[in-house]
Design a protein that fits this description.
The protein is mainly α. The protein is built from two helices and two strands. Helix content is 75%, strand content 7%. The two termini are 17 Å apart.
Length: 116
């Protein structure tokens, strides 16, 4: 028995399905990276909270450690970074949800077309 050939429209939909699946995987991976960065920032904030206000604080800039102007400046910078990460994570979660919906709809469309 010969394999059924796919119409050009079905081939295009299948390619679109694969592209959306790859986009979903890339988005999920990027979200996971940002969540890891956020967790690391939370640990840094907790560590900063536990040190004295007059303790020297350094931050990494490339291959160098640079002295911060003070503990509060470091805390403010970290909190700002955390807020930015939260926004990025929320955006990626919305993008993931949208891609999942689109992927599910396209899969159902393809399955329906293949059954005919």
């Amino acid at each position: 028995m010969a394999e059924p050939t796919l119409t050009p429209a079905l081939q295009q939909q299948l390619a679109q399905l694969q592209q959306q699946n790859q986009a979903l995987q890339a988005t999920a991976q990027q979200r996971a990276q940002f969540e890891a960065m956020k967790a690391e920032g939370e640990q840094a904030l907790a560590a900063l909270e536990s040190i004295a206000d007059d303790a020297p604080v350094y931050r990494s800039v490339g291959a160098f450690l640079v002295k911060e102007t003070g503990k509060q400046a470091a805390v403010d910078r970290l909190k700002e970074d955390q807020e930015t990460l939260e926004i990025r994570i929320a955006r990626l979660q919305k993008q993931e949800a949208s891609l999942k919906e689109s992927l599910t709809a396209l899969q159902q469309k393809l399955q329906g077309a293949l059954k005919q």
